[in-house]
Design brief:
Number of strands of chain B: 21
Number of strands of chain A: 12
Strand content of chain A: 25-35%
CATH architecture of the domain at 6-93 and 169-261 in chain A: 3-Layer(aba) Sandwich
Distance between the termini of chain A: 40 Å
Strand order of the largest sheet of chain A: 6-9-10-3-11-12
CATH class of the domain at 6-93 and 169-261 in chain A: Alpha Beta
Structural class of chain B: alpha/beta
Largest sheet of chain A: 6 strands, mixed
Strand content of chain B: 35-45%
Distance between the termini of chain B: 37 Å
Helix content of chain B: 10-25%
Oligomer: heterodimer
Largest sheet of chain B: 11 strands, mixed
Helix content of chain A: 25-40%
Chain lengths: ~260, ~425
């Protein structure tokens, strides 16, 4: 296995409660690359991220997903994470009574494996450093996971976890939603800090705005549960300028949502 | 030939009273208890049948030798004593074997002794309070009244603050024994105390624990009472705690029930003084074939009284448990606020847990609220934790600790917290 991560999605179809949402997604992400998936609401973007992470609500009916050649779809959620998958969630759970520090230490130790646990001192230093970088108050260490966090604080907390866990493939699901410009800058700073040949990034967003701060190498447009158009940064700029209608026209799509073509 | 313990008669009661040279009023209390015990039915517990449980098949009052110095106490007890603690008292089976109170507190008039000794040395104080907190009257409590021995007595005089914990140990060792400890806590006007009770068992089969706690918080007094119990799977535990508050007084109960056997635990608090309050926070973990019944009961009798009841349970194996919260607001207890919540995590399919919030309100000008839930761990939370690489088992463990933390956080001192955490860990790994 080479060191650079490689995620390969082929003809992925998935449904929720019997309703098909993903209708044949193809995508390859390699270490060092930043991909952005854009598209209007209801086109399957978030389903793609949850399906890749293994949310139990979604059932894969066809296709394959491999990470570094290994079949991701056969793995439970926690194993996918230990292999290097990470999903910064749009709506992170609140977990009362579990401190951020205990949560993160458990997660880091789970990735490191038995007998290789991180020392408490080293963990505290690392967490402090990353929190500093993300301009997070020290009190977050001892606060319960996401409980009482504002929208922006939750997003920062997701990026903090990403920085500590150093995934091979990071999926950012609408990491920009509900952020003011200052928070967006900080979150982007965190993501950019991690950009390296050792990590591939998949960003899901409605807005071109995010792409000003995290420059993608590839931009994809999702409609009706599949990727209908791919390009570079210029595609995002065109979308910002002209909206999605010209793509629909070009491809003869009337209704871009998943529901349309049931 | 095996000797089966006979149903108790007057001789046993006389024997206990004689051995402690007890005064006539106390003998009468014991005799009355014995009479009522033989006449009364078992208490009717909501959804828990105890008629086949071991009620009185035991040898009462096994006497033990006193221990002269703290150093000679077993490690498992010393390990639970915080540095700088206010005092330590240890009852093993029928006898208080050790008692020691910080000298400065002694000088201030604080008393820590066995209840038997307090009957001799503080007769008036004991007589004025013993069995006077409003203990529910039935076969189990009457049996206790007849046969209690040893016991712990804590008295804090007016305006004296005891901020470090007084450690009370109840130590059961040996088979087919009955241990009936009675704790009497009296905090005088504007005083405070922290009581840390640990119940431990070493090598005991088929024994019965029938204990009672009475707490009197006089006007302006503050009592923090914490307890962690861990009795074995063949030991049956009956426990009745009662608290009474004066004006502006408060009683905080933080209770961790980690028994492995059948358990009945009832904690009732009478808010008798205007502006007084209580907090009743408890956790229990049931596993294997345990049957348990927990009641947290608050009675608001005065105006401007507040209560906050939180019961948390985690059910594994084939365990069954009932968690009842009862908030009673009497007519005339205006401007009172009674809140309660019972929350259960049902981990395994065969486990059963019942959360029953009961509000009994006889006054209009009050606030009251309740919440109850029973179900498995939240799938979305589980997914979130697992998406960071944490295994299902470890994720469940984290969530259970998180779920129980509001109660763990109230325990005084790290050692008691650590003990509860260790016991929880043990329960989770069965």
């Amino acid at each position: 296995m080479s060191n650079a991560p490689y995620l390969k999605i082929e003809n992925l179809r998935a449904n929720i409660e019997g309703k098909e949402i993903l209708k044949g997604v193809n995508l390859e992400i390699k270490g060092g690359e930043v991909h952005a998936i854009m598209g209007p609401n209801g086109t399957g973007k978030s389903t793609l991220s949850s399906t890749l992470m293994g949310h139990p609500k979604y059932t894969v009916t066809e296709g394959s997903v491999t990470l570094d050649g290994e079949n991701l779809l056969e793995m439970p959620v926690d194993e996918r994470a230990r292999k290097g998958m990470f999903l910064a969630m749009q709506y992170p759970s609140e977990i009362s009574g579990v401190t951020n520090a205990d949560f993160m230490r458990s997660a880091m130790n789970a990735r490191r494996g038995e007998g290789k646990e991180i020392s408490i001192m080293k963990f505290v230093r690392e967490m402090d450093k990353k929190m500093n970088f993300l301009e997070m108050d020290e009190s977050f260490t001892h606060r319960y996971v996401n409980e009482g966090f504002s929208g922006g604080e939750k997003k920062r907390n997701e990026i903090l976890q990403m920085m500590l866990l150093k995934p091979r493939i990071a999926i950012l699901d609408e990491i920009d939603s509900g952020l003011d410009i200052d928070a967006l800058k900080i979150v982007s700073k965190g993501v950019n800090e991690l950009r390296s040949p050792d990590m591939g990034i998949l960003m899901i967003t409605h807005y071109q705005r995010l792409l000003n701060y995290i420059k993608p190498d590839y931009v994809h447009v999702m409609m009706q549960g599949r990727i209908v158009k791919s390009g570079g940064q210029e595609l995002a700029e065109k979308l910002e300028e002209k909206g999605y209608d010209w793509i629909k026209e070009e491809l003869g799509i009337q209704d871009e949502t998943v529901a349309a073509e049931a | 030939m095996t000797v089966k313990a006979v149903p108790f008669d007057g001789k046993i009661v006389t024997g206990i009273a004689d051995s402690q040279q007890e005064p006539a009023w106390l003998r009468r209390l014991r005799e009355e208890g014995l009479n009522r015990y033989s006449e009364q039915p078992l208490p009717k517990l909501d959804k828990t049948k105890i008629d086949k449980w071991n009620i009185d098949d035991f040898t009462p009052v096994k006497e033990e030798k006193a221990i002269d110095s703290y150093d000679l106490l077993p490690e498992e007890i010393k390990n639970l004593v915080e540095d700088g603690s206010a005092g330590v008292i240890v009852q093993k089976n029928g006898t208080v074997i050790f008692s020691q109170l910080n000298d400065q507190l002694k000088d201030k008039g604080v008393i820590l002794s066995s209840l038997s000794q307090a009957v001799k040395e503080q007769e008036e104080l004991v007589q004025g309070h013993l069995f006077k907190s409003g203990v529910t009257d039935h076969k189990l409590t009457s049996l206790h009244q007849a046969l209690w021995s040893g016991g712990a007595f804590i008295y804090v005089p007016k305006n004296v603050e005891v901020s470090e914990p007084i450690h009370v140990f109840q130590w059961l060792e040996g088979d087919s024994l009955g241990m009936l400890p009675h704790m009497l806590v009296i905090t005088d006007v504007n005083s405070s105390v922290v009581v840390a009770e640990n119940v431990i068992e070493t090598k005991s089969q088929s024994s019965v624990m029938n204990g009672m706690v009475e707490v009197f918080a006089k006007d302006g007094a503050r009592v923090k009472f914490s307890s962690v119990r861990s009795l074995g799977s063949t030991v049956t535990d009956y426990l009745y705690r009662t608290g009474v508050t004066g004006k502006d007084a408060s009683i905080q109960w933080a209770l961790g029930d980690m028994n492995h056997g059948n358990t009945v635990a009832n904690t009732q608090t009478f808010l008798k003084g205007k502006g007084s309050n209580t907090k009743v926070y408890s956790v229990a973990i049931g596993n294997e074939k345990q049957k348990e019944n927990f009641v947290s009961h608050v009675i608001h009798e005065a105006t401007h009284t507040d209560s906050d009841v939180l019961s948390k349970g985690v059910m594994f194996g084939e365990a069954t448990a009932i968690f009842n919260g009862i908030t009673k607001i009497e007519k005339g207890a205006e401007k009172s606020n009674g809140q309660q919540a019972e929350k259960l995590l049902i981990i395994s399919e065969k486990a059963r847990g019942d959360a029953n919030p009961i509000l009994l309100i006889d006054e209009d000008d009050v606030m009251a609220g309740h919440a109850a839930s029973a179900g498995p761990v939240d799938e979305n939370q589980l997914y979130y934790l697992m998406s960071r690489g944490i295994s299902r088992k470890e994720a469940e463990r984290l969530m259970i600790y998180g779920f129980l933390s509001p109660v763990i956080d109230l325990l005084p001192g790290e050692k008691m917290k650590t003990r509860l955490n260790t016991l929880i860990e043990g329960k989770l790994s069965i």
